[in-house]
Amino acid sequence: MLDNMHPHQNQPVENGGEPLADAKGAVILIHGRGATAESILSLADQFDQPGIAYLAPQAADNTWYPYSFMEPLYQNSPGISSGLQAINDLVDHIEAIGIPIEKIVLLGFSQGACLATEYAAQNARRYGGIVGLSGGLIGPDGTPRTYKGSFNQTPVFLGCSDIDPHIPLERVNETAEVFERMGADVTKRIYPNMGHTVNEDEIQFVREILKNG
User: Fold this and answer.
1) Secondary structure of residue 190 in the 3-state scheme
2) Distance in angstroms (rounded) separating the CA atoms of residues 172 and 151
3) From the CB of residue 126, how many other CB atoms can be counted at a distance below 10 Å?
4) Which tens digit of pLDDT belongs to each residue from 102-138?
5) Across 147-168, average pLDDT
6) Which residues contact 26 (CB under 8 A, 6 or more apart)?
7) Residue 97: helix, strand or coil by DSSP?
8) Residue among 124, 107, 113 nearest 203 (CA)
9) Minimal CA–CA distance to 151: which of 118, 133, 129, 174?
């Protein structure tokens, strides 16, 4: 039964790649609005890296929160807080298995990218990597970005179209600036006239993060 205050808890988690108990690293894949854990898990085949476990949490009703990530936070409650908790639960689970945080990569697309970057900013540590594909930090313009902690040179990749209908370029730039200020090694790539999608250049960059992690 769906818990209205914690909609994304006790939802399925899809798994791929190496079994978690045998893996040298793990990637948490967070899907976008209207998509599924299974759909974003298909990216694992394109990353084609041995020894990596992939875990993809499923949002209740395929949507992490109802409105734009730029809306006031209360309008997207409790979806955002529940989504952030779902990521945290997976991070805790992976660490409990014995994979250290510096071998865990957070990757999201669209809504999932917003959750991934926001979770990382609120829980800054040395991750294996943080990948925001067509997304950025959550909240309306002017939201205080008074996050604590350091990323200690965590590799961060932010990729987005310059005309994305859902993600303002200014928010991608702000996200990059915040992560740099917090000690991340940020790569930002803005693709002219690209749709709201994932391209081969982004996939190749993630491949390198996983290969070098």
Assistant:
1) strand
2) 18
3) 15
4) 999 999 999 999 999 999 999 999 999 999 999 999 9
5) 97
6) 20, 52, 53, 54, 55, 94, 99, 103, 104, 105
7) helix
8) 107
9) 129
Using only the alpha carbons of the chain, give its radius of gyration.
16
Torsion 201-101-37-141 (CA) sign: negative
**How is the beta sheet containing 25-30 ordered, strand by strand?**
13-17, 52-57, 25-30, 104-109, 129-133, 155-161, 185-191
pLDDT, position 2: 57
Binned at pLDDT 50, 70 and 90, residue 195 comes out as very high
Paired residues of 189 in beta bridges: 159
Largest CA distance in the chain: 44
Contact 156, 189 (CB under 8 A): no
From 85, 67, 98, 90, select the one nearest 5 (Cα to Cα): 85
Give the pLDDT confidence of 37-82 residue by residue, as tens digits: 999 999 999 998 999 999 999 999 999 999 999 999 999 999 999 9
pLDDT of residue 4: 82
CB 27 within 8 A of CB 15: no
pTM of the model: 0.97
